[in-house]
Amino acid sequence: MKESLMDILCDPLDKSDLELEVTDRDGDEIITGRLVGTVTGEEYPIEDGIPNLLPPDMRDDE
Amino acid sequence: MSRLHGPGDVQFFDRIARLYDAAMPAADADSLRAGLAFARRPVERVLDVAGGTGRATRALARDGPEPTVVDFSRGMLERARDDGREAVHADAGTLPMRDDSVDAVVVVDALHHLPDPERAVREAARVVVPGGVVVIQEFGPRTLRGRGLVLAERAIGFDSQFWTPDELCDVLERAGLNARIVSGGFEYVVVGRVEDD
C-alpha cells in the first residue's frame, strides 16, 4: 500500500484514526508494517503490501 | 441457510482466485462510467468493494482514477496487488474507511455474494462524500439468462440473493441514497447519489 492510502483508512471497529508503523518499504510502497488503532489499540498487520483491516473477530488466524 | 462456502462465499473465491480472471468476462465499463457520471463532483477516489482481483474495474483504471480494491478474500487481493492495484483486506459491512472519504464506491457482480448486502450498501453510503455515488452492477434475476444464473449459483451452493433493478433501487433508497437505474438487462447497473443534508 502507498502512504497516501492513509488519507482514507480508519479503524474498522470505531472509525477512529490509525497510526502507521512501517517495517519495510520499497520506494513509496509500504510492504510490511502495521496499523494501530489510536483509540482501540487494535493492531492490523500490513503483509506483502496488503493491509489486513478485517475486524479482529473476522480474521482467519492461521 | 446454506453456508457451504463460508461467510460471503470467501473460501470459494480464495480457492478459485487463479482461475477467476480467465473464466469471467470483462465487466461493462461503459455502464459503470455512466453510473459514475451521475456524481455531482469530480470522481477521483474510488473504492471497488468486493472487487476481488480488480478485474471489473480494470477498464476504468485505464482511463480514469484507479479504484482501490477492497475484498474479504486475501487470495483475490494478491492478484489485484500483482496487477499494481491498491488492495485492502476488509469486510464490506465494516469498511475501514472514514466518513465522506471517497468520491465513489462501485460493487460489480458481487453484492449478491455478501452476507449482509443492505449493511454493505449503508457502509458504502457512509464513506462516499455528498455529491458522490454508489454504483452497483448486478444480474437481473427475471431475465432469461438471469434465471439460469440463479439456478446455477444455487446448484454450486452459493447462498445468493438477487434483486430486480427496482428492488435494488429500494435498497439504495433505504440507505439514504437518491437512486436510479442506469441500464437494464441481464447485467444491469443502478446508481445512488449521496445528497447534501
Automatic annotation (TrEMBL), chain A:
SUPFAM superfamilies listed in its UniProt record: Trm112p-like
Family matches, as InterPro entries: Trm112-like (IPR005651)
Name of this chain's protein: Uncharacterized conserved protein YbaR, Trm112 family
Organism: Halogeometricum limi
High-level lineage: Archaea, Methanobacteriati, Methanobacteriota, Stenosarchaea group, Halobacteria
Automatic annotation (TrEMBL), chain B:
Record keywords: Methyltransferase, Transferase
SUPFAM superfamilies cross-referenced by the UniProt entry: S-adenosyl-L-methionine-dependent methyltransferases
A Gene Ontology BP annotation from the UniProt entry: methylation
GO molecular function, one term: S-adenosylmethionine-dependent methyltransferase activity
Domain Methyltransferase type, chain residue ranges per copy: 47-136
Protein name per its UniProtKB record: Demethylmenaquinone methyltransferase / 2-methoxy-6-polyprenyl-1,4-benzoquinol methylase
Organism in which the protein naturally occurs: Halogeometricum limi
Source lineage: Archaea, Methanobacteriati, Methanobacteriota, Stenosarchaea group, Halobacteria
